[in-house]
Specification:
The chain has four helices and four strands. With 163 residues, the chain is of the alpha+beta class. The relative contact order is 0.10.
């Protein structure tokens, strides 16, 4: 026959059964587990990983700054020559008196109620069309005739004179 001393699991099982019986009558307050977990967390703080050093908004700001830096470097490295079509500039004053299309030719042809409007346009606004702009004449305006659609969208422009 086996004795309880021969089998340590039987000893433990009996001790645990007695413990379970005693604890069944005990009722702990509701917040004990939460307070114990908080005390454990205060005593043994987990180590933060390297990427947890910054918060989510800080990581977003860092990413935006890196992207902005990359764009600035790419723009700084790009060539800065004016774009020309052939040897003629895209814009001239009263020489050919041709309109410069600002929209597609299909849209211009399809517009039934286009109107011709005279306007004073800042010289800096016409720089993308090839008009030369320098610091001396950047504040000047240019007299232009604009072909405007019925909804107010400019379709084409013809420069008449520079002021």
């Amino acid at each position: 026959m086996m004795d309880m001393n021969d089998n340590p699991d039987a000893k433990l099982a009996a001790a645990f059964a007695a413990l379970r019986g005693e604890l069944a009558g005990q009722d702990t307050p509701r917040c004990v587990e939460k307070e114990l977990l908080q005390a454990f967390e205060r005593q043994f703080k987990p180590k933060r990983r390297w990427y947890q050093a910054l918060s989510l908004p800080q990581w977003g700001t860092a990413g935006a700054l890196c992207s902005l830096t990359a764009v600035v470097l790419l723009v700084a490295q790009s060539p800065h020559e004016a774009v020309r079509v052939g040897s003629q500039p895209l814009v001239s004053f009263d020489n050919g008196a041709a309109f410069v299309a600002l929209d597609s030719l299909e849209r211009i042809e399809a517009e039934p109620d286009a109107q011709l409007v005279e306007a004073e346009v800042p010289r800096t606004a016409l720089a993308p069309l090839g008009l030369s702009v320098s610091p001396e004449n950047a504040a000047d305006t240019v007299r232009a005739e604009m072909l405007v659609a019925a909804d107010g969208h400019p379709l084409a422009v013809r420069l008449s004179s520079a002021n």
